[in-house]
């Protein structure tokens, strides 16, 4: 099953060691700096996503109460219910 795709991720530990060796030859002493900058970039990306999610949440929470007050829907038919047509059962009946 692993031979189905011609291009894929390295599967064995020997392939990972070869890739690590090539990276060590290419980057040498700069490898820790590259790792740090990559880590900082990932942290900044996550902070940006979190900020966008918070902005979306605040905007949707502002608009939800207005939509809920404008129209109510019957859960069985899905049709809008007018406040005067809503019937409340008597207090003693179940």
Written account of the structure:
It is a single chain. By secondary structure, the chain is mainly α. It has one domain. Helices cover 59% and strands 4% of the residues. The chain has helices at residues 13-27, 31-70; strands spanning 72-73, 80-81. It has a two-stranded antiparallel ribbon. A hairpin with a 6-residue loop joins strand 1 and strand 2. It starts with 12 loop residues before the first helix and ends in a 13-residue tail after the last strand.
List the SSEs and their pairings.
Elements: H1 13-27, H2 31-70, E1 72-73, E2 80-81
Antiparallel strand pairs: 1-2
Question: What does this entry show, briefly?
Answer:
This protein is mainly alpha-helical and 94 residues long. Helix content is 59%, strand content 4%.
Element string (H = helix, E = strand): HHEE
Report Rg.
Answer: 29 Å
Average pLDDT number: 76
How would you describe the shape? elongated
Strand content: under 5%
- Largest sheet entry: 2 strands, antiparallel
Distance between the termini: 61 Å
DSSP strand tally: 2
Give the tags:
single chain; 94 residues; mainly alpha; two-stranded antiparallel sheet; 4% strand
């Amino acid at each position: 099953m692993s031979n189905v795709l011609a291009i894929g991720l390295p599967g064995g530990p020997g392939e990972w060691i070869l890739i690590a060796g090539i990276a060590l030859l290419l980057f040498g002493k700069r490898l820790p700096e590259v790792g740090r900058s990559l880590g900082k970039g990932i942290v900044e990306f996550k902070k940006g996503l979190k900020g966008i999610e918070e902005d979306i949440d605040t905007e949707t929470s502002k608009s939800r109460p207005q939509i809920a007050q404008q129209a109510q829907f019957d859960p069985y038919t899905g049709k809008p219910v007018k406040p005067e047509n809503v019937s409340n059962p008597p207090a003693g009946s179940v």
